[in-house]
Amino acid sequence: MTGAGVTTVEPAAPAPVRRFGFGRFGFGTAVRGGAAVWVVVAAALVGLTIADGPGFWSAANLATVLSGTVVLGLVALGQHLVVLGGGIDLAVGSTATLAALLTAMLIDGYPIRTVPVVLGMVVLGVLVGLGHGLLVSRAKLPPFIVTLATLYLLQGVAFTVSTAPVGRVSSALSGFALGRFGPLPYALAVLVVAVAAVAYLLRRTTFGRHLRAVGGDARAARSVGIRVPRVLVTSYVLAGVLAGLAGVLLAARATVGSPTAGQGLELSAITVVVLGGTSLLGGRGSLVGTMGGVALLALVASSMTLLQLPATLTELVRGIVIIIAAAVFVTKVRR
User: 217: phi > 0 → left, psi -120 to 50 → alpha, else beta; which?
Assistant: First the structure.
């Protein structure tokens, strides 16, 4: 540009910086669809097949791997619903712990008590989830604070009830939890039904659409007439119910109740949800990805026994796998 005898030169626009990203290879869509974590699962399967194919693909080992997905899978399903709605539930592990302890203690070897006690643990989950939902949606308290407080509260109740393993589940309940048909554990049916139910809720019902809307932008959802409190309360109640069922299966597998049975489940559930591509900010997530994260952690746990590695390395190996998977596949979401 020229003017008054002075010539000025417009600065050239800076060249766009090319950043390396796996989205250039088509992984972006896979991450959003939840398929990316299954790539890591497939790689783990190949590695375990090379390391010890006959041992890994034996019916007993496959049953162990699949059994490891049931409890974590139930808790992760509940966490998936809560996170999808923009919340978080740090108390799912403590809920499962208390349910496991009470299941064994109340049944105490009497078969006639099995059904009422299992239903009671479902009610326990409903009450815990209802409390979370009301405190978050009505009292407007942060989900992190509410569920962190409940984590300690429920764990404290469990230790008040007993500081040592107590009670005994019925033989029918333990037989269901420990039995298998070939490589397929009977208890896997519970997870399959739960996954199908949650998938139906998210894809075919108004609740599923509203949950994503609330997680995406609660104010916008409220402005179009969505009952945000009802949606949030429902998601927390479902998470509580699934955690209660997980606790029943924990007790059934151990045959006794322990005040530490479900410790760490809340962190594992959050881990698999994030690895599956669900945004911790809410509104976006993949049930397929969450189940892939469950499968990955189950494979990591079983591989330690299969390869006869020290049990002390389990958490180290799990952490390394999570870091690698997250660095490769988990995308950052800007809101």
Answer: beta
Paired tokens of 281: 């900010």
Q: Rounded to whole angstroms, how far apart are CA atoms 165 and 174?
A: 16
Structural domain includes residue 31: no
Residue 142 gets which letter from DSSP? Answer: -
Is position 242 within any domain? yes
The pLDDT tens digits for 170-207 are 999 999 999 999 899 999 999 999 999 999 999 999 99
Positive or negative torsion for Cα 323, 89, 122, 229: negative
Please write the tens of the pLDDT for every residue from 211-237: 999 999 889 999 999 999 999 999 999
Domain that holds residue 177: 68-273+282-300
Distance of alpha carbon 176 from alpha carbon 107, whole angstroms? 15
| In the block, residue with structure tokens 């955690």 | 243
For residue 319, the tally of other CB atoms under 10 A from its CB is 12
- Residue 3, H or E segment: strand 2-3
Query: Model-level pTM?
Result: 0.86
| CB atoms near residue 162 (< 10 Å) | 16
